[in-house]
Amino acid sequence: MTQGYTTHFSPRFSETDGLGHINNTVIPVWFEAARDPIFKIFVPSLEISHWNLILAGFSVDFKAPTFYGSDVKVVTSISRIGNSSFEVHQKCYQNDELTAEGRTQMVHFDYETNRSQPISEGIRAELKQWLVD
């Protein structure tokens, strides 16, 4: 079991809102970018023509403001693995303070049949490396 993997972001001035905070639309974009290593488990080349995942839903809880001028750390882990779906759990930290937490439901999907498909044992084993309680 792991604590997850870490991705770092440097907030850009253009990502701030009128109150001087990082805009609430930015953190879900950072979370998506931090999911690339998970995407590579399913599609190592990241070629869209081979894509086999869909995002079924996500939620973000904002815990504290995130600001311009100080780097951000996003920690990504897996919180649940089902038959054809899994949940990604992510936390955003700035200066060691939790500023946002998100959960994303992903589905292993066959675009030709337009249906979910079971996650193979090989992929399941790779996902389990990132599984946290």
Give the overall shape.
elongated
Tell me the name of the CATH class.
Answer: Alpha Beta
Give the H and E element order: EHHEEEEEH
- Structural class of the helices, strands and pairings? alpha+beta
Low-confidence stretches: none
Largest sheet: 6 strands, antiparallel
Keywords: Hydrolase
Protein name: Acyl-CoA thioesterase
GO molecular function: fatty acyl-CoA hydrolase activity
Family: Belongs to the 4-hydroxybenzoyl-CoA thioesterase family.
Report on the structure:
With 133 residues, the protein is of the alpha+beta class. It has one domain (5-128): Hotdog Thioesterase (Thiol Ester Dehydrase, Chain A, Roll), CATH 3.10.129. The chain contains three helices and six strands, in the order βααβββββα. It has helices at 26-34, 36-42, 121-128, and strands spanning 5-9, 53-62, 72-81, 85-94, 97-110, 115-116. Strands 1, 2, 3, 4, 5 and 6 form a six-stranded antiparallel beta sheet that branches. A hairpin with a 4-residue loop joins strand 5 and strand 6. The radius of gyration is 16 Å and the shape is elongated. The N and C termini lie close together (9 Å). GO terms for molecular function: fatty acyl-CoA hydrolase activity. InterPro entries: 4-hydroxybenzoyl-CoA_TE, HotDog_dom_sf. This is Acyl-CoA thioesterase. Keywords: Hydrolase.
What order do the helices and strands come in, and which of them pair?
Blueprint: E1 5-9, H1 26-34, H2 36-42, E2 53-62, E3 72-81, E4 85-94, E5 97-110, E6 115-116, H3 121-128
Antiparallel strand pairs: 1-3, 2-5, 3-4, 4-5, 5-6
Keywords: Hydrolase
Pfam families: 4HBT_2
InterPro entries: 4-hydroxybenzoyl-CoA_TE, HotDog_dom_sf
